[in-house]
């Protein structure tokens, strides 16, 4: 496999490729979120602040690349299922809207994410379709066994749930560390 194919939105991706790339992107995202939480503390020295700023910039660039790879492989997987990749954009908008607008029911976004991941891991016919010929086998020596594929899917789900749990824990920690300050109104002139 050519690694530049990870950034392409066509032609097709097998479910093994989708599971492997999802596992890697979820793991990298979780690692960066955990490391960012280490830098977010009160009372940083100037050197620590500069390091935190540099890490924030590097992680933003790398997380953008991880996001792009995840989006591209999801589009290609939709193509393998003979569906337009734009359906995934609709799902993504729905998840972001639920997660941002209705933050009290954040778990709905997690359930939708896991459901989409399981949907994209369903086995579909491997014949040619309107997007391209059948997707080539991805790491045939490794993913030819069902147990390895199932373990990758379960690990993806666990990493997704772990990422949400870490995010909620960091939010609760930040709310304890930085309580909301009372805002005093300024009289109008």
TrEMBL record:
Transmembrane found in the keyword field: yes
Record-given protein name: Uncharacterized protein
Pfam family, one: DUF805
Source lineage: Bacteria, Pseudomonadati, Elusimicrobiota, Elusimicrobia, Elusimicrobiales
Species for this entry: Candidatus Avelusimicrobium gallicola
GO CC list: plasma membrane
Regions crossing the membrane: 18-35, 47-69, 89-122, 148-166
Keywords recorded for this protein, A-Z: Membrane, Transmembrane, Transmembrane helix
